[in-house]
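INFO  loader      accepted 1 record
INFO  loader      residues=93
INFO  predictor   begin
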Amino acid sequence: MVTALDAESVTQRLGELPEWSLREEKLFRQFTFDNFVQAFGFMGQVALLAEKMDHHPEWCNVYNRVEISLTTHDAKGISERDFKLAAAIDQIR
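INFO  predictor   done
INFO  writer      dumping tokens
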């Protein structure tokens, strides 16, 4: 069973991911690309990674912008799984 991290742990872990922030009680990051094709290609890479990790993001794409929010629904909050996926996404970008 996956458990949510407490607020102090989330704040501490956010220090390890400087491009990410908290928005609506979820990890959040916005990515901007030169064009739609690059943004969509990035989403494809993230989709394959997320499937492999069995942990899927909430996201939105508008032209060259991709917004990603991470939370663990089963834990009803942010878990270690979210931080692992965020770090892996950062490696793609």
